[in-house]
Write a structure and sequence with these properties.
Its cofactor is Cu(2+). This is Tyrosinase copper-binding domain-containing protein. Keywords: Copper, Disulfide bond, Metal-binding, Oxidoreductase, Thioether bond. This protein folds into 2 domains: about 20-420, Di-copper center containing domain from catechol oxidase (di-copper center containing domain from catechol oxidase); about 440-575, Sandwich (Jelly Rolls), CATH 2.60.120. About 25% of the residues lie in helices and about 15% in strands. The chain has helices at about 1-10, 65-75, 145-160, 170-180, 205-220, 280-295, 300-305, 320-335, 355-370, 385-390, 440-450, 540-545, and strands at about 105-110, 110-115, 125, 135-140, 395, 405, 420, 460, 465-470, 480-490, 495-500, 515-520, 530-535, 550-560, 565-575. The strands form 5 sheets. Strands 8-15-10-13 form a 4-stranded antiparallel β-sheet. Bound molecules: CU-O-CU linkage (C2O). The site of CU-O-CU linkage (C2O) has 9 residues, from helix 4 and helix 8. CU-O-CU linkage binds next to helix 4 and helix 8.
Length: about 575
């Protein structure tokens, strides 16, 4: 173990050579991601040559003829790809106006708590241009880092904590970025009091990527090491399925006392089933990873999250990864002794735990793997080409405390942003649950379960089983759609979906009957409730089960939270839409 550990961690030091062209020699080659093999696309620059000092960009104001924008993008991405957009375009979400930042709110035991998490006002805004990459930063797996890395990382975090309170790069200002963008401090510019929210939509991955990008650069600057790379919490691998030990040292600058004390050394439970058998929990975790990365997604929006444009209400729909493993880690670490699960367990406070950035580094890695590593026969279309996605923008302070405007389109490629991830095994990649054979019992139960139409709309406060008509007989390509899921945003909520579950052991997810998950991290928005929809692909599930010629399937919904908070408007099975045009690989 020690010698292997030594080899791994040697490679993990940030000063090690970039591994994009070398393959670590201690592992099976087929199990390593090879980001380097992917092709680079044409570079898209958002830079306007004027380095404008608060000059309004007419494109962002929607004053430019949108056909020109479409044409311009078409030249880069191929106009045909635009047909994959599910709705007509409106306008992209614009970066917030810092001078209009208001109080963020949270509910503490039903009482409203106002929080000021607004950033300092910047003098001028510069449109950010990605700097040329001279040396690739390699983010290490947090369980495999060297003592030297831990020392450096803590030194950087310590310096960040010591920066003056009004420095936008200091620890609390950085933590507050999350609060401001997630708990209702900003309104969408020009849209009255409509909240700006970066979760539960296609902005989830790009926003957090930019957030970590500047966090990492600030830390690097504070220790004079431009190669410094944040660690990632490798929770998708059994070897990373505990809180990374370096975060548990109470004397460390990366320590946070507000964590669930029962979970400090526990195996993470991505399914939140409460199962106490660690081996079963690991099996559940790998099944969840396989499901949210591969099995349950039909198109790019199922993975990335649903379109969120100017004027869209918050919460159009989280992607599979966001509502699955991502939420689970927040809730697993959040401290139940605190009124709102602080720190990681609530969006307003999540950025106050240094572990947040390690968690999100792995979330970011999932996006990168999904785009550049998962084979296209497993993952449908990989790119969103909608201009309202590509042109959405955010504001951040960079490592020099300069206020910059960044766009989603500049965040699509982590290599272009100058960082990659240490290569580690992906044990979930082929973790397809075993086929279910016996259908005798489910057939008997299905005749007694009520039809869905009789139950919906449904307040989900206990396990419920019902029948849903199939769209076609037999093993067709079908999607299970849960519509108008109305949630109380201030609560942790989660439920799992099973189809034709024969044994009803809801503590085990590693079976063909597990279809997917909905979950959310508590946060407060001006409107306490939000309505969303999710869809789950059933193709593989049918393949692994004997659905035969049945006209209906039996769906079981299993809430993992206590009490009320979720209402589901309707449920139906539809035929999978014809395959969206896949962008040509460039
Ligand atoms: Cu912005 Cu994990 O949350």
């Amino acid at each position: 173990m020690n010698s292997l550990h030594f080899l791994c961690t040697t490679l993990a030091t940030p000063s090690a050579q970039p591994r994009s062209s070398t393959r670590p020699f201690f592992a099976k080659p087929s199990h390593f991601i090879t980001h380097a093999r992917r092709n680079h696309r044409l570079q898209v620059s958002c830079n306007t040559s004027d380095q404008n000092q608060n000059v309004e960009n007419p494109e962002r104001k929607g004053k430019v003829d949108r056909r020109n924008i479409l044409l311009g993008l078409g030249g880069l991405y191929g106009a045909a790809n635009l047909v994959s957009s599910p709705e007509a375009s409106a306008n992209p979400i614009q970066a917030p106006q810092l001078d209009k930042c208001g109080v963020a709110t949270n509910l503490n035991n039903g009482k409203q708590l106002d929080i000021n998490c607004c950033p300092p006002l910047g003098e001028n805004i510069i449109d950010y241009r990605l700097p040329p990459v001279f040396q690739m930063k390699i983010r290490p797996s947090a369980h495999r880092v060297t003592p030297e890395y831990i020392f450096k990382f803590n030194m950087a975090m310590d310096r960040m904590r010591r920066l003056p309170k009004d420095d936008p790069r200091c620890f609390m200002q950085q933590a507050n970025i999350h609060c401001a963008y997630c708990n209702g401090a900003y309104d969408q510019p020009g849209q009255g009091t409509l909240d700006l929210q970066v979760h539960n939509s296609w902005l989830f991955f790009p926003f957090h990527r930019w957030y970590l990008y500047f966090y990492e650069r600030i830390l690097g600057k504070l220790i004079g090491d431009p190669t410094f790379a944040l660690p990632f919490w490798n929770w998708d691998n059994p070897k990373g399925m505990t809180i990374p030990p370096m975060y548990l040292d109470p004397k460390a600058a990366i320590y946070d006392p507000k964590r669930n004390q029962d979970n400090l050394k526990a195996v993470i439970d991505l399914g939140m089933t409460g199962n106490k058998d660690p081996l079963q929990v690991v099996a559940n975790n790998l099944t969840i990873m396989y499901s949210e990365m591969i099995r349950s997604n039909t198109d790019v929006y199922d993975f990335m999250g649903q379109p969120y444009r100017e004027g869209t209400g918050v919460n159009p729909g989280p992607g599979a990864s966001e509502r699955g493993s991502h939420v689970a880690i927040h809730v697993f670490v959040g401290d139940p002794r605190e009124p709102s699960g602080e720190n990681l367990g609530n969006f307003y406070s999540a950025g106050r735990d240094p572990l947040f950035y390690c968690h999100h580094s792995n979330v970011d890695r999932m996006w990168s793997l999904w785009q550049y590593f998962l084979p296209s026969n497993k993952v449908p279309d990989k790119r969103i080409t909608d201009p309202d996605f590509l042109n959405a923008s955010f504001l951040f302070y960079d490592e020099n405390a300069q206020l910059v405007r960044v766009t989603v389109k500049d965040s699509l490629d982590n290599l272009r942003m100058g960082y990659d991830f240490e290569r580690v095994d992906l044990p979930w990649l082929d973790y397809r649950p075993p086929p279910q054979t016996a259908r005798a019992r489910i057939t008997r139960t299905s005749s007694t379960a009520p039809m869905a139409a009789a139950l919906f709309p449904l307040n989900l406060d206990g396990i419920v089983r019902f029948q849903v008509p199939k769209a076609k007989k037999g093993k067709a390509d079908e999607l299970l759609v849960l519509e108008n899921i109305t949630v109380d945003t201030t609560k942790f909520l989660k439920f799992d979906v099973f189809v034709n579950d024969e044994d009803d052991n809801v503590m085990e997810l590693d079976k063909a009957a597990y279809a997917g998950t909905y979950a959310q991290v508590p946060h407060k928005t001006s409107n306490k409730s939000a309505t969303t929809s999710i869809r789950l692909k059933l193709t593989d599930l049918y393949d692994d089960m004997d659905v035969g010629d049945d006209d209906t399937v039996v769906v079981t919904l299993v809430p993992r939270h206590q009490g009320p908070g979720v209402t589901i408007g309707g449920i139906k099975i539809i035929e999978a839409p014809p395959k969206a045009t896949t962008p040509p690989s460039s």
